[in-house]
C-alpha cells in the first residue's frame, strides 16, 4: 500500500517517532530541522529525506507556512516476490537514511521522480497507483546504491526509553524509571537524551504528554479539566501552565485555533 500525506507546521509533532515503513519527506515550502538517529539535519525547500524502516526521528523546528508531502510505502509492494527477494530483502533496515539535494545532479533526477509520484498519488487517474509504484521502484533502485547512513551505537537503549515514555505517558515518571527502561544510570540516561534529542528525559516526558493533550483537545469534546485528569495532573492550573509553555497558548486558545 502506498499513501501520501501533506504535513504543515500545525501537524508536525516534536516527539520521537520510529519509521515503520519506507518514507520519503519532500519539503515544498519552509524549512524543517530534524534529528535522525541523533544527527541534526536541516531540510530546505526542494530537498527530500528518505527513511528506511526503524529510523528514530524527532522534529526540532518547522518554520511558519511550512509544507511537506510524506510518502509511506512497504518496499515489498513495489516489486514481484522474485525481485523483492533480490532487491528488497538484503537491504531493508540496513540502508539507514539519505538526504537528497536538488543541487546534486543525480539527486535532482530522483527528486523529480519523487515529485511525479506525489502528483500521481494525489490525482484521480485510473493509473495513478500504477504510475506511482513504477516511479517509487526507480527511487528505491537509486537509494540502495547509495552509501548507507547507519544508526548510531545506543539506538536500542534509546528506542526502549522512548517506547517506555510513550507507553506510560499518563503516569508520573521519574528519571530512575526512564533510565531503568534503557538499562542505564541516571547520568547516562540524561546524556542519551541530550545527544539524541537535545533535551532532557523529564522535559521530553512533558513534551509527549502535552502532544497527547493537544490531540485530545482537537479530537474530543473533553473539558480542559478532564484532559488534565486523563494525563495525571492533579491541578488544572498546573496543566494549563505546562501546556502554554509547550504550545505558546492556553488549552482553550489552542482548541479554538485548531478547530
From TrEMBL:
Q: Which InterPro entries match?
A: AraC-bd, AraC_XylS_family_regulators, Homeodomain-like_sf, HTH-like, HTH_AraC, HTH_AraC-typ_CS, Tscrpt_reg_AraC-type_HTH
Q: Which domain of life is it from?
A: Bacteria
Which Pfam families does the record associate with it? AraC_binding, HTH_18
Q: Which UniProt keywords apply?
A: Activator, DNA-binding, Transcription, Transcription regulation
HTH araC/xylS-type domain residues: 159-257
Which protein are we looking at? AraC family transcriptional regulator
Species name for this entry?
Exiguobacterium alkaliphilum
Amino acid at each position: 500500500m502506498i499513501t501520501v500525506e501533506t504535513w504543515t507546521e500545525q501537524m508536525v509533532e516534536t516527539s520521537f517517532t520510529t519509521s515503520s515503513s519506507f518514507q520519503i519527506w519532500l519539503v515544498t515550502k519552509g524549512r524543517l530541522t530534524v534529528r535522525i538517529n541523533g544527527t541534526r539535519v536541516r531540510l530546505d525547500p526542494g530537498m527530500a529525506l528518505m527513511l528506511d524502516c526503524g529510523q528514530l526521528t524527532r522534529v526540532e523546528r518547522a518554520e511558519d507556512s511550512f509544507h511537506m508531502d510524506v510518502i509511506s510505502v512497504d518496499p515489498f509492494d513495489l516489486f514481484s516476490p522474485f525481485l523483492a527477494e533480490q532487491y528488497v530483502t538484503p537491504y531493508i533496515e540496513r540502508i539507514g537514511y539519505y538526504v537528497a539535494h536538488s543541487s546534486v545532479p543525480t539527486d535532482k533526477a530522483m527528486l523529480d521522480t519523487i515529485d511525479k509520484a506525489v502528483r500521481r498519488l494525489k490525482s484521480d487517474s485510473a493509473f495513478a497507483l500504477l504510475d506511482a509504484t513504477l516511479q517509487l521502484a526507480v527511487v528505491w533502485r537509486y537509494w540502495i546504491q547509495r552509501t548507507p547512513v547507519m544508526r548510531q551505537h545506543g539506538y536500542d537503549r534509546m528506542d526502549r526509553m522512548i517506547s517506555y515514555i510513550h507507553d506510560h505517558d499518563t503516569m508520573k515518571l521519574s528519571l530512575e524509571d526512564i533510565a531503568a527502561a534503557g538499562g542505564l544510570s541516571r547520568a547516562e540516561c540524561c546524556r542519551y537524551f541530550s545527544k539524541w534529542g537535545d533535551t532532557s528525559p523529564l522535559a521530553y516526558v512533558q513534551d509527549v504528554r502535552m502532544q497527547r493533550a493537544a490531540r485530545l483537545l482537537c479530537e474530543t469534546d473533553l473539558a480542559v479539566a478532564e484532559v488534565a485528569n486523563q494525563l495525571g495532573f492533579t491541578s488544572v492550573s498546573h496543566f494549563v501552565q505546562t501546556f502554554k509553555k509547550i504550545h505558546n497558548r492556553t488549552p482553550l486558545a489552542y482548541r479554538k485555533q485548531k478547530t
